[in-house]
Give the backbone structure.
Amino acid sequence: MTKAKNDTVHERDNNADARPSKKAKIIDTGDEHNDGEATKDSEVALQQEENEGTSVTSNSPATGTSKSASTAGKRGSGALQPTLSIRSVLPNPTKCLIDETEVEGLEETLISRIQKLSEYTNARANIYALGKLLPTATWGQYKLINDHSKVLCDPTTGEPLTIWTVSQIARMWFTKSGVPENQASLTIMPLSKSLSQQSATLLAKMSNPVLNINEQSTQVICAIKWQNGKQSDREAEAILFDTVYDVQAEGSLKTYSEWPLWNLADLKTGDLILLEMKMTRYSKKLEDKWHSCVQYEMIAISLLDISEIVEEETQGICQIDGLAI
């Protein structure tokens, strides 16, 4: 479904100006620039596990018991660093996945779909709603081929998790002057304030060292996507992200091959979407020290509902009947 991209990425500013109302005006989201420049991580091989003490849990075939293989060195006392997992950083996940005020005025059929998607889990497909993440999920194992050490994975299968979240679009950044940017970003607002705050906590605590959480970061979620790849030793030309679907019709969420496509340019602020993403980490040097930062990467965007548009009033213009000059 998706195009393979470089998993090691840098963050972009994930603050949104404000939460748009359900009757949002059309704004220029295509060429709106987020603060700060983002560049790819050039230190892929540097500090392979970034001295995080990340461990991967696997089941022993002989006993069925859980074993932990640490990829980092021991502490001074000789004890291994604890394994980071969803459960360890979110021992008491929120139960409020939808705020009633956020779905007020929507049709009952749409509200029912939103509720199902907000609680959706499918272990076989490795799909989990943002508010229902696999408690044991942790960073994958390092491998020379098909390395998942920088992606949140199911420790029993070693496969990356696909995370679903139903949210409203707050800001889009895919092109600049009509040309696809190397790194795209999408800022969204979950339908639950507590879920948005929980997401900010998750990203902060999965980072090493733990990041500070500012108030604005708890209101929105930002997901990025590299729109360019690599060809041999040079960077390829950016190609506009096009994994966008139209799933407005009830029952349209089936297999990907059956999902009708939607034009990215037709998305706008306030639209209700199902965002598919994965959680990744990357290395960033701050004050001569390497930090491991965590972010979301876009996989696909699916339109659930188009926001109502308030047409801007035309002032100072009147219609003159019969005018033909």
In short: The radius of gyration is 22 Å. The longest strand covers residues 289-305.
